[in-house]
Amino acid sequence: MDARGFWRRVKRDYGPYLPLSPYLFVVLFPFYWMVITAFKRDRDLYNLETAPFWFKEPPTLEHVKLLLEGTLFPTWLGNSLMIGALVVFITLVLALPAAYALARMRFPGAQPLSTAMFLSYLIPSTLLFIPLSQVVRGLGFTDSVWALVIVYPSFTLPFCTWLLMGFVRTVPKEIEESAQIDGCTRFQAFRMIIVPVIVPGIITAGIFAFTLTYQEFIYALTFISGSANKTISYGVTSDLIRGDVFYWGSLMAGALIGAIPVAVVYAFSLDHFIHGLTAGALK
Amino acid sequence: MTKVSRRQFLGTAAGATAASAFPHVWIRPAWAQTKEVRVLAWTHFVPAYDKWFDAFAEQWSSKSGVKVTIDHVPHLQIPAKIAAEIATQSGHDIVQLVGTGTEKWASALVDVQDTADKLAKKHGGWTPLAENYCKVRSDGKFHAVPDFFIDFPGLYRKDLWTEIGMPNGPDTWEDLHKGGQKLKAKGFPIGIGLAHHDDSRASWRAVMWSHGASEVSKDGKTITYNTKEMREALKFHKALYKDAMTPEVLAWDDSSNNRFLASGRGSWIHNPISAYRTIEGSNKELADKIFVSLSPKGPATRRSFANCRAYGVTRFSKNQDGAKAFLEALVDNYRDAAKASTGYNMPFLTNYAKPPFPVISEDPKLKPLEQDAEYHFTTGYPGPLTPAADEVYQQFVMVDAVAQFATDKMDLEQTVKWGEEKIKAIYAKF
Amino acid sequence: MSNGRELIGARPAPVAARPAAVRGSWFGREAVQGFVWIAPAFLYLAFFIAYPFFMSIYLSVSSARVGSPESHFVGVQNYTRLFADPVFWQTVRNSFVFTLGSEAIRLIIGLPLAFALNRSFKGKRIVQGIILIPFVIPIALSSLAWKWMFDSLYSVVNWMLMRAHLIDYPWQWLGEPGLAMWSVIIMNVWRGFPFSAVILLAGLTAVPQEVIEAAKIDGAGPLRRFHYVVVPIVRPILLVGLLYSVVFSFTDFSAVWLLTQGGPYNTTHVFGTYAYNIGINAGDLGMGAAITLFIFPFLALIVVLMLRFLRRD
What we know:
The complex is a heterotrimer.
Chain A: H1 2-14, H2 17-39, H3 42-45, H4 62-70, H5 73-104, H6 110-120, H7 125-138, H8 145-151, H9 153-170, H10 173-181, H11 186-197, H12 199-215, H13 218-223, H14 232-239, E1 241-242, E2 245-246, H15 248-281
Antiparallel strand pairs in A: 1-2
Helix pairs in contact in A: 2-15, 4-15, 5-8, 5-9, 5-12, 6-9, 9-12, 9-15, 10-11, 12-15
Chain B: H1 2-21, H2 23-26, H3 30-34, E1 36-42, H4 47-64, E2 67-73, H5 78-88, E3 94-98, H6 113-123, H7 128-134, E4 135-136, E5 141-142, E6 145-150, E7 154-157, H8 158-163, H9 173-185, H10 198-210, H11 228-244, H12 256-262, E8 268-270, H13 274-282, H14 284-288, E9 290-293, E10 304-305, E11 307-313, H15 320-332, H16 334-340, E12 345-346, H17 372-375, E13 376-377, H18 387-394, H19 397-406, H20 412-427
Parallel strand pairs in B: 1-2, 1-3, 10-13
Antiparallel strand pairs in B: 3-11, 4-5, 6-11, 6-12, 7-8, 7-9
Helix pairs in contact in B: 4-16, 6-15, 9-11, 10-11, 11-19, 12-13, 19-20
Chain C: H1 20-60, H2 77-83, H3 86-117, H4 124-136, H5 139-149, H6 156-163, H7 177-206, H8 209-217, H9 222-250, H10 254-259, H11 271-281, H12 285-293, H13 295-311
């Protein structure tokens, strides 16, 4: 009885690990190998004879040191996180009212505008970056993180608005109407009813926006020159590839350190994220 | 109605606060603008050079009162930066031309003939290569100040080549072919890239010109891809690939041949000495076995490819005089720069284009490089470096052609036809 | 005023008729209000997307080159040149293969993962975090990591495969023409499948257990249950996720660029990389713009097809 109960509990608590293991392997193996590379001495790394999965010579912190002290990596990380946070804020501030208006209000041109909003998401950054650089320069932002802060919402805004529109539509109209009868203004109804209800949606949109911003490469390449203004993506690829030498150890260390904080955030907000997607898609 | 104006009010208040919080974005003191020179340069393949360069800039800044800042960018990213800066008419005062000719950016770069003349007078004149690279044909003036070029000799493992009877490495391409074949059988192939990166397009041109072939003729306009010599060159390169190399070269980038040599497996690569310097730093015993030979000779002649570097002053620079002064000082100190580059930078000034060379002439291993200035040419040879030739170079047309031929994707006639059509299409644009 | 929080779980109910007085007080201003509410967003987009977009269209019909100020209108010349360029058509093919191939594989391997994550088990939160790692590493950095893993000399993938006797010579993951496309797809799948799994998971959690039970009681087998019950509910969620994913792949630049730069001989060029090489490296801005503009109709086509398929009720 005890043995059967024990196995049943094991199956319940750990069962999924069986189908999960190939995935964990596929994800963890590059990750593990990146960790090893980050701490392997160069002689050990560029050696065709040794096994790549363990150390032949003792591990070293020199790659991490080069990354943290020899480059402006901490600054880049800080830049990326700050830009991400600001862009998320700007995106939400612009997208929420627009999503509400497009989803709820009737005014001429609402439908075509909503389609235009959606279509603008399809316009890729590789198309826009040259003319966009003229816009940015016209506004006076050259070679600074602020150039990125004002430009990044261009690819987060369309998608987030579209996403939030779906969420707004899930709120039953009756609640708003009863608020209206109670004497609320549109804005008050928006602020006190809609927004709290669609918080999962806001979190979802925020996460999407942050991910897109954090990953971005080509605008950073175009608008930034000074090392102190670089973002993670651009900084690591530009300063750790010196001419014909790739500093693989430091590159891998950079990739890892760059990923971990974001992964932690995702791990904790995944439930909201999923909830948000579920609720928002059911119109 | 109240709520609308409240929102608007809040919005404008926030905006005003934001704008006033970051004045440094909007206001730059007038004096700061004119007393500064910003340079866009590549990250040199020999890190010691950049150290020297940055220090030189600092010294010059304090002496002249003009602040020089250098932004180092990987060479592959420079074209994007320059494009964006020209589009916005703002950015660096000095931009480095990395392998691409001056002609295509002539209208964005200021005429620097005066600086060029001063330097020419002091140092015996410019080599024909320098003039080809920096002189713009439309007005016959220099629109960039030549700095140095990068040569492509052969780097070989003396121990391995001695075993097969060529202690000084291969002198001709055919020697390379035969020797490489023997060494590949022993497990030490040679390596020349056949992919989308600088080394590949440089090496191909060396092979091509050594066989007396070229894609364009001396007038810079007639396409000569469909010739007997070109077919010879193509056939040779295919044989070289099949007999002496492994397929890995199809996936190479600019750092791959360095690593190939450093791994101990490579017996010969076509590369400037940066590869040797890197190995010197990490594996002394291997470095001791590596020697330098001239780029191989072909049935027609000996030619190799010069990857050039020059500096242009942008038209939108607010401190053109300061920029020109800095460039003059920089190139004036060519000998120091060449020394700092441990022999990597090759001369454009006539007085320095003959021995003794800094570093190179002092090291018996590197002595062969003394001859490099004589047989190195650049894109478009035997014609001038036109924007059309440059575009063929940028689009890897000829590398793709020979790669497809070498891997049997196309036969000889198809390859020639493919290459010729593509090159003609590009030249038709100009 | 209630704040509606208690209604989070509610499904949208049928719209009741509104009292006429209420309709008047909000309605009358909607025409103006609407514009005020969307104004910030659309002003931003007009400035940062519409204007550059039209500039690009203008570039594509001009002879603009980097660094030359005299550019003039050339009509469709750039486009006709593109149509005659075999590399362009290869790029089109590659872009479709890359995007659709990656997406299909991601969904196929994402589904079992979603099922597994749908159960609760010990350590689930950690596993969720780990599974998401490929997705959160900036793509420029994960591309570099894979480039190193596929290295022509030091590939750890080859090392493993050779030790396992699955291959007998080192494969050139980034150098052999067909294989290079697979490599790029593998990398794209690796970094995208966590997201696909999350989307599918969201879809699975959206299906209420009672509905499944009801279907079971009605005698529906697993396949019919899947088709008539699960799929309609999951569709809209899939739409959101797939859209994001497909657009990301189709407009991608850094992944392919950092891995292969479009090689070997153009077999992995996608729109983004080919346009960059022609527009920036070669300096032909007009043609570069023309190439990227092609993304738009092809992508719109894919999206319309997806919408049609996924909205079919």
